[in-house]
Specification:
179 residues, alpha+beta, Beta-clip-like, 3-stranded antiparallel sheet, 4 helices, 10 strands, 20% helix, binds zinc ion
Length: 179
């Protein structure tokens, strides 16, 4: 199957990735590639801006697990252009050392792919820090910030997708198929 997406300019922010065909829920759409580094190395490469300063644009870092991040500035592919939305249609899910962008619901051709960045800073998410990470996703229930909300769990679609399509579910299906 040819890749069901294309990169083009997005009204949300810079470039975006758009579906060109129906993408079914649970599809591993594209791997988020880049250099696998420690969280500390990521912080060293791209320090958080001090208060009162804008965050630098275009630092493509994605958290893989508790200790590691993927730096898509080094060896990154089109996945790094996927924008944030507070009402996402996909979600990065880690399968071992590989991060895949997985559809959390059926996606129609022409829709922009977007996942919830849910960025967690080391410092508390104060109103001024939230302003440094604004969200312009346009969703009806937009949080106004791409930072992770403290008391609100992930979007229900995302939670369900992780359960249904994540690495444990995949392993269960593989075990079932072998029987
Ligand atoms: Zn938003």
């Amino acid at each position: 199957m040819p890749r069901p997406w294309v990169v083009r300019n997005s009204p949300r922010h810079g470039k975006g990735v758009y579906a060109t065909a129906v993408i079914k829920a649970g599809t591993k759409i594209i791997e988020y590639t880049g250099e696998l580094i420690s969280e500390a190395e990521g912080e060293r490469r791209y320090p958080t801006a001090p208060d009162g300063h804008e965050e630098p644009e275009h630092t493509y870092l994605l958290t893989l697990d508790e200790h590691r991040v993927i730096d898509a500035n080094v060896g990154g592919n089109a996945a790094r252009f996927i924008n944030h939305s507070c009402e996402p249609n996909c979600e990065p899910i880690a399968y071992g050392d590989h991060m895949w962008i997985v559809a959390v619901r059926d996606i129609k051709p022409g829709e922009e792919l977007a996942y919830d960045y849910a960025i967690e800073l080391d410092e508390p998410h104060t109103p001024s820090r939230k302003k440094r990470f604004p969200c312009r996703c346009g969703a009806r229930r937009c949080r106004g910030s791409i930072l992770k909300p403290k008391y609100q769990p992930l979007h229900p679609l995302v939670r369900a997708a992780i359960r249904r399509y994540g690495p444990e579910a995949e392993a269960r299906r593989a075990a079932g198929a072998r029987r």
